[in-house]
UniProtKB/TrEMBL annotation:
This is GDP-mannose 4,6-dehydratase. It comes from the Bacteria. Belongs to the NAD(P)-dependent epimerase/dehydratase family. GDP-mannose 4,6-dehydratase subfamily. The gene is gmd. SUPFAM superfamilies: NAD(P)-binding Rossmann-fold domains. The keyword Ligase does not apply. GO terms for biological process: 'de novo' GDP-L-fucose biosynthetic process. Keywords: Lyase, NADP, Nodulation. Its EC number is 4.2.1.47. Its cofactor is NADP(+). It catalyses: GDP-alpha-D-mannose = GDP-4-dehydro-alpha-D-rhamnose + H2O. HAMAP family: GDP_Man_dehydratase. Catalyzes the conversion of GDP-D-mannose to GDP-4-dehydro-6-deoxy-D-mannose. GO terms for molecular function: GDP-mannose 4,6-dehydratase activity; NADP+ binding. It comes from Rhodoplanes elegans.
Amino acid sequence: MKRALVTGVTGQDGAYLSQFLLNKGYDVYGLVRRSSASDVMDEKLRWLGVADRITMIDGNLIDLSSLMRVMRDVKPDEVYNLGAQSFVKSSWNQPLLTGNVTGVGAANVLEAVRLEAPQARFYQASSSEMFGLVQEPVQSETTPFYPRSPYAAAKLYAHWMTVNYRESFGLHASSGILFNHESPLRGIEFVTRKITDGVARIKLGLQTQLALGNLDAKRDWGHARDYVKAMWLMLQQDTPGDYVVATGRTASVRDFCRLAFAHAGLALEDHVVTDPRFLRPAEVDMLLGNPGKAKERLGWAAETDLEGLVAEMVDADLARLSRSAQRN
Ligand code: NDP
Ligand code: GDR
């Protein structure tokens, strides 16, 4: 039985990836940082019905010694580094923490792999945010990077460390440059989930307005369930590499909103207001990925379209809020 170690196991992608790996027969170990709110930490894993099937291990991305101990204890065949301070807007408020966790944290995992588990295959959760102020209208593996936030700068460091550990030490280290991917398990602070939660609340009469920031920003949005498969496929290749993972379609926040409100039989014009509190010091205006390499080499393609994603998220939020209204 293969052993996989997943950092960020309590996040959106960690939950879907764990489910995917368990279905493939892996022994899954999750790195979990100590928190006083440990009862809510496993919420996503419980939602997918996999919480009891994962072995949780205490550790932290900013504590190299904990990562070395984990590598020694688990002896993983595959390491997926998904842990990060992943909310771009917070990265301006906590730039150094973001640098430590999202950037240096990845270097710590690479060091722990190099020193304690050099045969393990390594996956780094790189991001389309690294393209930032885009240098080409459609972004691929060869598009120059231009990070626009402390988060993106930290991810770029982690990305290049992955490339360097591959080239310097011969590690089987791959980097997935994933474009935005969403799901009912998306954190509530991210715009898609904020919208679908808001739509559900308005539909159920729990609120009347939804305040958002820049409605013109465009993103290439896919489903997390599809994207974790691409992570796994990268580690099954004979040679490691870097891959853009995207749908190849871009849509604005306004477009996403329109679809979500329409799915609930509502009109966004009646409910959406803009609030400067949700604007950023610097914006990434437009992202659109070319997933050609992933399709050709991995045989991967997005399976869920934007309409299907929006419908699933709105329906899940309506069901969740209706259940909690019945309980109260
Ligand atoms: P989430 O924010 O949902 O999850 C982040 C995870 O990192 C959580 O499990 C969190 O644990 C953990 N974490 C945070 N700090 C530490 C730390 N110091 N030590 C150990 N674990 C820590 O992110 P997603 O699941 O959405 O994304 C997964 C990864 O992919 C992230 O690295 C993200 O930056 C990257 N990415 C995401 C994209 C997306 O669209 N979702 C696109 C491209 C890249 P806790 O529960 O304790 O907070
Ligand atoms: P992003 O995701 O920054 O792309 O990073 P987010 O959903 O936070 O923002 C997307 C776009 O929507 C605009 N926006 C708002 N965003 C939020 N959060 N709240 C609002 O009210 C709002 N109104 C408009 C933003 O300005 C932005 O343009 C995500 C994260 O998962 C990263 O970790 C990952 O690397 C990238 O996707 C790819």
